[in-house]
Amino acid sequence: MVGLSSIIVSMNQFSAHPGQPHRSHRGNWLRASVLGVDDGIVSVSSLMLGVSTAHANSSIILTAGIAGLVAGALSMATGEYVSVSSQRDSEKADILMETRSLEDNPDEELAELTAIYEHRGLDPKLAKAVAEQLHAHDAVSAHLRDEIGIDGDSLARPAQAALASALAFSIGAIVPIIATLAVNGNTKILAIVIASLVALGISGAIGALLGGGNRLWAAARVFIGGGAAMAITALIGHVIGRSV
């Protein structure tokens, strides 16, 4: 038993590959950020292209872009808030259930945690020793972490998620709007396409850089996907504009 806690602490503090931190823990916020930026670029640029190919004037194109930015940001914020609130409710329910079970059935819960560590490869004596020490330190946190996979100190934050999603969408959506304001005349469509595609490529590459993926492939897939979405929307706008 002597030194067991120090071994556990050491495992958490030291890495066999210093200077090369793990990146999988960035998954949630990285996914949300990249999705928000890309969604903002594709949604608003496609909307503006669809309106422009329907022979709308510059004022209408700009108005459509700003309306798309506001509507999209609010939609992203609302959707993320509702989704993350549901996740937080589930987490809190699990915490309450584990807390009550530990109060009512401490021996059964200890045996359950011991079995978890045995299943992960520890011999029965060591598994029991680890479970007992973690139970004595913070039983609720031990069960949340190792039985359910919840970090009690990092519960989902709905307001934070909503704000981040709205901000990410707005950053992406502002790109085609700025492109429209920067040029005059018939070059607006070309400016929207070029600025949006470049921004998509940069967004994909940055996401891959932060996540440890292939930057060229990540940039290419969002470039192709976003370009296809813009082309389809522009075609629909052109067809409708000619027929109405």
Measured on Cα atoms, how large is the radius of gyration? 25 Å
Largest sheet: none
User: Order of SSEs, N→C?
Assistant: HHHHHHHH
Number of helices: 8
> Which percent range fits the helix content?
over 70%
Q: Using DSSP, what is the number of strands?
A: 0
Average pLDDT rating: 80
The chain-level structural class is mainly alpha
Instruction: Provide the low-confidence segments as ranges.
Output: 1-18, 20-27
Residue fraction in strands: under 5%
What distance lies between the first and last C-alpha atoms, to the nearest angstrom?
81 Å
Gross morphology: elongated
Commentary on this structure:
This protein is an all-alpha fold. It has a domain of 160 residues. It contains 8 helices and no strands. The longest helix is centred in the first third of the chain and has 47 residues.
Which key features would you list for this structure?
single chain; 244 residues; mainly alpha; 8 helices; elongated; disordered N terminus
Give a concise summary.
With 244 residues, the protein is mainly α.
SSE layout and pairing:
Blueprint lengths: L3 H10 L13 H27 L4 H47 L1 H14 L4 H25 L9 H25 L5 H24 L3 H29 L1
Helix pairs in contact: 2-3, 2-6, 2-7, 2-8, 3-4, 3-5, 3-6, 4-5, 6-7, 7-8
